[in-house]
Design brief:
Largest sheet: none
Strand content: under 5%
Number of helices: 4
Number of domains: 1
Radius of gyration: 36 Å
Helix content: over 70%
């Protein structure tokens, strides 16, 4: 005799083997069709859930990217200012001839000014609705307004002393 691996409840077995085989096959096909429908439905729900999840994740990442971009540019500017501060302190204390040659100091200042100009340009390209932190916005506004007068003064002085 052939029995289904998933027989429904209340199966009435017939005495004839042909009839029993036919009913068993028929019920097995119905059971498998029912399982296939459930499987397809559960897979469709899973795929839709994944699509919604990825959509929401992408939306959240885009919001975070806007905040990170402004904060990232501010971090880059702060790091550049810290590198310039070391040179400025040594310059104003008359120690710039010590550890570094004058040409190296000039190259460092020019490189940092170029870096800051690039950072300012990137910041200015950000849409205004992405500039949510007003403190950072003020810092970049001041940088654009007052430029690099102190650095240019140092460069002029260093180039004259060469």
């Amino acid at each position: 005799m052939v029995f289904s691996t998933y027989p429904p409840k209340g199966l009435k077995l017939e005495k004839t083997s042909n009839m029993l085989a036919f009913k068993t096959i028929n019920l097995t096909i119905k059971a498998h069709n029912h399982m296939n429908v459930r499987f397809v439905a559960s897979m469709a729900i899973a795929i839709i859930s994944l699509a919604v999840g990825f959509y929401l994740l992408n939306d959240i990442n885009q919001e975070n990217a806007a905040e990170i971009t402004q904060k990232h540019l501010d971090k880059q500017l702060t790091e550049s200012n810290e590198r310039l501060a070391i040179i400025k302190d040594k310059f104003y204390n008359g120690e710039y001839h010590g550890e570094l040659q004058t040409e190296e100091v000039i190259n460092i200042i020019k490189a940092e000014v170029a870096t800051q100009k690039k950072i300012l340009e990137q910041y200015n390209e950000l849409p205004s609705e992405l500039k949510t932190d007003k403190t950072i916005d003020m810092r970049f506004w001041q940088l654009g307004k007052y430029s690099w007068a102190g650095e240019e003064s140092m460069l002029n002085s260093l180039e004259k002393n060469q």
